[in-house]
Amino acid sequence: MKFEDLLLETGGFGKFQILILFILCLPRINLPMHFLLHNFLAATPSHHCAIPHQEAFVNLTMEEVLLISIPREPDGTFRSCEMFLQPQFHLLLNSSLQPENNSIIQHCQHGWVYDHSQFTSTISTQWDLVCEQRGLNQATATFFFIGVTMGAMVFGYLSDRFGRKAMLLLSLVCSVIFGMLSAASVSYSMLAITRTLTGVALSGVSLILLPLGMEWVDIQHRTFSGILTSIFWSVGNMLLAMVAYLVREWHWLLVAITGPCLLSTVCVWWVPESARWLIANGKVKQAHRHLLRCARMNGRKDFAVSPETLRRMATDKKPGENYSYISLFRTPVLRKISLCSGAVWFGVAFSYYGMSMNLTGFGLNMYLSQFVFGLIEIPAKMIMYVLMNRVGRRQSQAWALILTGLCIGANIIIPKSFTSLRSVVAIMGKGFSEAAFTTVFLYTSELYPTVLRQNGMGYTSFVARLGGALAPLVFLLDEVWRSLPEVTYCGVAVCCGFVAFLLPETLNVHLPEGIEDIE
C-alpha cells in the first residue's frame, strides 16, 4: 500500500487538509515582508552634502547657498556626493556657468542632508550609507540572504532528521527574537548580524511550509496546495507595500512585519507532524494517531488501517542509516536532478530578486510598484495552476523562466522615455518570474523522495539564496555599464530556463518514498 492509497482511506482531500493548508499559509504571508523589506528598510532618499554655516550666507536663501556650494549634474540636479572647496559666488550671477575644473570639487566633508518627505528614517539616513558607503547599504540585503542560505542547509538537514513541525516552530520562534533585535539595532554592525540571523531563522519557515502541507495531500490536489500556499506569498507582497506606506520609520517597520510571526507560532502548534515522514522514519504509532485524527475530521469513522500495516509501509531504510546532502549526488539519476534543479533555482531566485529590488527602475511610485508586483503574481499563479496540470511541470518551469529573462532584456532596449511600455513589460516579467518561483517550489518537492525531500529542498534553497544574495550586489555593476545589471539578469534567467528541460516530468506521478523509487 502506498501512502496516497492510505490518504484515500482517510477521506482524501477533506476538512483536515484544508485546515492544515490555511494554517500554514499564515506564516507564508510574513515571508515576503522580510525577504523584500530591503526596498524600504534601505531606501535612499535624495540627498546632498551638508553645508556648514558661514557669515557670507546670512542674506542668501537656501537655494542660493546650494547653488554656490554644490556642483550640478547635466540635468540640473545637485550632485549627491560632491561639493565645492570654496563657495562659487559668481554662480549667483549666471548659474549655467558650471566650473569645469575638477580641482575645486571635493567629496562631502560634513555629512549629508536628506529629503525626509517620503521616509522619516531608513538605515541609509541613520548611518549615512550613501556615496562611498553605498556598497554597505546594498550589502544589507546580501547579509540577510547569506543567513537564508546558511539556514537552508541547517533546517533542510534538521527537518529530515528531527521532523518538519519541530523545526518549523523553532524557526518561527527564532524569527521573532532576531526580528525584534534587528529593530532595536544601535549600530550598522548589530543590524547586519541580526538581519543575517533573521535570515537563518526565516529560511526554515520558507523551506518547511510547502513540503509539510504537501505531504498530507493526495496526488490530485498537490498542484492546488502548492498554488494556494504561493498565493499567500503574493498577499504578503501587497501587505508589505501597505505597511511600508503607513510606517515610514525603519525601526517600527521591522516591528510591524515581525509581530505576525507570534500569531503564526501559536497557530502552527495545531498542525500535526507529517505522517509520511513519521512512517518513513519508523514512528508508526504517532503516524497512526495523526491519521486517525485526519479520518475522523474528514468524516471517515470506518478508518481501520492498523499500526502493523503502517509498519509494513515503511521504506526499506536500513536501521541506523542516516541520509545527508551527500546522498543527493551518490546515484546517477538523483545526481542529475540535483545539479539541474540547483541551476534552475539559482536562475529563478536571481532574476526574481533582481526585479523585486528595482522598484524605482520602471517609472512607477515604489509603493505602487510593490503593490502591483504582488497583485500581478496572483493571476500568474492561476494561469500556472492550469498549465502545470495541462502541459506539465517541466515545460511550465522552463518557459516561465525563459520569458522572465526576455522581458528583462526587452526593457534594456526600450527607451526610458517610454515609461508606460517599460512598466507594462516589467509587470509582465514580474508575473513570469513569480510563475517560475511558484512552479519550482512544487516541482522540486515532487522530484525528491520522502527520505531526502527536505535535504533536497535545503540544497536547492541554498543555491537559490546564493542567487538572492548576489542579486542586490549586481546593481553595483551599473558603474561599469548602466545596462550591465539587466543584461546579467536576462542572461542567467534564459540559460537556467533551458536547463529545466533536462529534468524529468512529475505530473500525476506518485511521490517517491525511497531512493530506489527515483533510480
Automatic annotation (TrEMBL):
It catalyses: 2-oxoglutarate(in) = 2-oxoglutarate(out); guanosine(in) = guanosine(out); 3',5'-cyclic AMP(in) = 3',5'-cyclic AMP(out); prostaglandin E2(out) = prostaglandin E2(in). It comes from Sagittarius serpentarius. One of its GO terms (cellular component) is apical plasma membrane. Residues 87-507 form the Major facilitator superfamily (MFS) profile domain. GO terms for biological process: monoatomic ion transport. The keyword Transmembrane applies. Pfam families: Sugar_tr. It is found in: Apical cell membrane; Basolateral cell membrane. SUPFAM superfamilies: MFS general substrate transporter. Keywords: Cell membrane, Ion transport, Membrane, Transmembrane, Transmembrane helix, Transport. This is Solute carrier family 22 member 7. The chain crosses the membrane at residues 139-159, 166-186, 192-212, 224-246, 252-271, 337-355, 367-387, 399-418. Belongs to the major facilitator (TC 2.A.1) superfamily. Organic cation transporter (TC 2.A.1.19) family. GO terms for molecular function: organic anion transmembrane transporter activity; prostaglandin transmembrane transporter activity. InterPro entries: MFS_dom (IPR020846), MFS_sugar_transport-like (IPR005828), MFS_trans_sf (IPR036259).
